């Protein structure tokens, strides 16, 4: 079996049945061959319901238990089709589009699948940004009356960190934050950026402790640039892409409690923006879905 399909025809040929999808999950989960988590055995019988039975200790091992796939009660081939649909569209799909394109019984099913798969877009233990990193915040939300700026009402504050490499943007990280206080900003930057990195910000006082936290902090205040120039242009370019994506694909900003899931998807897509292979993105999503813990509805709605 090929590592991943390259076209929609190859996808359809590769995964015509649940059994074929099960075989592929085994291949991705154990790329160097099966290894029993109980005894280390190297051979297994493939059972029904996505189980393998170790030939050495005779214990059953589920391929889907403890992963994003655990709580998805539909056939695997339909779930794979949903993943291909999500990945093959450059800007993603809305829950309504997914429901209609796959003939799912309810909007709620499509909505839940999207949120579960968005969780899989964040690789557990992923590397922090490093090198030179530009950091600033942006407001996400609809147009409502109220004050503007970092304390604006009815909007959500999102911290954006962008690697700056050889005069072009590298990876990004996005995080929803409560406010722009020094305590909150310091903790968020520490979570997203490797200690010792160069962090470039505007002159906001909330970033004043970054040097004490182990970063080489460069400050460019608004008064130090020409009128119309921007001290954090890369962050604001990413923010512009984020807001257009939310508006175009998801009809505006989602509820505050669900925004982190959308930020995860945007980050996954933006960091792979130069990829020319949809199939490889599908493979990466499968890989990460096998590493991420289950996401019951109660945890998503909490």
How would you describe this protein?
With 302 residues, the protein is α/β, with parallel strands linked by helices. It has 2 domains: 8-31 and 64-119 and 277-301, no CATH class; 132-260, 2-Layer Sandwich (Nucleotidyltransferase, domain 5). It has 10 helices and 8 strands. The protein has helices at residues 8-14, 18-29, 76-88, 95-102, 107-119, 182-192, 233-250, 259-271, 278-289, 297-301, and strands at 44-46, 51-54, 60-62, 132-140, 156-165, 168-177, 198-201, 216-219. The strands form 2 sheets. It has a 5-stranded mixed beta sheet, sandwiched between helices. The radius of gyration is 22 Å and the shape is globular.
Keywords:
302 residues; alpha/beta; Nucleotidyltransferase, domain 5; 5-stranded mixed β-sheet; 3-stranded antiparallel β-sheet; 8 strands
| Number of distinct helices | 10
How is the main sheet built? 5 strands, mixed
Cα(first) to Cα(last) distance is 40 Å
User: How many strand elements?
Assistant: 8
Can you tell me the CATH architecture of the largest domain? 2-Layer Sandwich
* Strand portion: 15-25%
Estimated helix fraction: 25-40%
Quaternary assembly: single chain
Task: Output the helix-strand order.
Answer: HHEEEHHHEEEHEEHHHH
| CATH overall fold name of the largest domain | Nucleotidyltransferase, domain 5
**What structural class do you assign from the helix and strand content?**
alpha/beta
Q: Tell me the CATH superfamily of the largest domain.
A: Ribonuclease H-like superfamily/Ribonuclease H
Overall mean pLDDT stands at 89
Number of domains: 2
Poorly predicted segments: none
What characteristic shape results from the CA principal axes?
A: globular
